[in-house]
Amino acid sequence: MEDWSHCLDVAVQIALRAGQVVQSAVKQEKQVSSKSTPTDLVTEADHQVEELIISTLREKYPSHGFIGEESSAAGVTCELTDDPTWIIDPIDGTCNFVHSFPMVAVSIGFAVRKEKISAPQLELGVIYHCFDGTLYTARKGHGAFCNGVRLQVSKEKDVSKALILTEIGAKRDPATLDIFLGNMKKLLSAPTHGVRIIGSSTLALCHIASGAAEAYYQYGLHCWDIAAAAVIIREAGGYVIDTTGGPLDLMSRRVVAAGTRQIADYVVKQLQPINYGRDDLT
Active-site residue 81, yes or no? Predict the structure, then answer.
C-alpha cells in the first residue's frame, strides 16, 4: 500500500498559502457574480485561489487528476478516474467571504483507487479556516487533528441532547424551502438542543469532528464540500453516510454526518429528500 503522507504535507503547505491569499482578498473590493442561482456566488478570488492550488499540485503530481469547484462550474467534467484525484474547494463559504463574515475555509481532499464511480477511497483531507488560522488535517488510518491536537467526535447518543448543523443550499424556490424548513422543524421538535447554520459546509463538518456538534445534514452540497471533511470526521471516530442511511455517495450532493451511528440514523429517518441532481452528471 502506497504511503500518501507526502501528499498530506504538500496539501497542508498549499492550504496555508491559499489561506493567506484569501485573508488578503477579503480586505479588498470584490468582483462578485453568480453561477447556478443568484445565491450561488463566485468571486475573482475563488478563481485565483483554485488556480494557485491546482497549478501547484499539478507541478508536484503531474499524473494526478483534479476536481475543482470553479473549473467544474466552468464546464470541466466532474469525474473520478482511477488516477489519484485532488478534490478542491478554493473558498468554501463564498457568501460569507463576500460579506466578510468570518466562516471561510480552503478545503483540499484526496481520493485514490476508485472502486465504484461514486465510492472512491478518500485518503486525506485538509481544511484551513482562513479567518482564525485553525488547520484541520487527517489521513486515513492515522487520526484527525486540529492544529496538531487529536480530534474526537461527540459520543452523545441521545438526540434530545444534540446540537445539529445544516446549510440551506442554493435552491430557494418555495417548494424546496418548504421541504428544507420541514426537515428543520422535525429536528427542532425531536427535541434537540438546536439547529445551526454557519454558511460553510466544510467548517460545519469540522465541528462534527471536533465534538462541538453532534450531527450535520445537507442536500445541495458538492463533492468538494464533503471529500476532505469526510476523512477528518471518520478519523475522529464519526460517521459520514448518505441521507438514505446507506454508504456515502460522494457525487450525490447529499450527506449526513454524526458522532454516533444512533444520531446519524435518527437524522436520516427525519429527512424528506431534496433533489439537486449529481455532480458527475452535470
Answer: no
pTM > 0.85: yes
Is 94 catalytic? The answer is: yes
The alpha-helical segments, DSSP class H, found in 111-189 are: 174-188
88 a catalytic residue = no
Q: Catalytic site residue 115? A: no
pLDDT tens profile 166-207 = 999 999 999 999 999 999 999 999 999 999 999 999 999 999
pLDDT band at residue 77 using 50, 70 and 90 as cut-offs: confident
What pLDDT does 255 receive?
98
Instruction: Check whether 71 has a pLDDT greater than 50.
Output: yes
Whether residue 214 contacts residue 162, with contact meaning beta carbons closer than 8 Å, is answered with yes
Helix, strand, coil share (%) of the chain residues, nearest 5: 35, 25, 40
Catalytic residue status for 92: yes
> What's the CA gap between 125 and 183, in Å, rounded?
29
Minimal CA–CA distance to 88: which of 117, 116, 121, 127?
127
Q: Please tell me which residue in 91, 164, 241, 263 is annotated as part of the active site.
A: 91
Cα(267)–Cα(192) distance, integer angstroms = 11
CB neighbours of residue 214 within 10 Å: 31
Provide DSSP, 183-217. HHHHHHTTT-SEEE--S-HHHHHHHHHHTS-SEEE
Q: Judge contact between 144 and 232, C-beta under 8 A.
A: yes
CB–CB of 209/136 below 8 Å?
Answer: yes
Average pLDDT over residues 25-48: 87
Backbone dihedral angles phi then psi of residue 222, each to the nearest 5 degrees: -120, 170
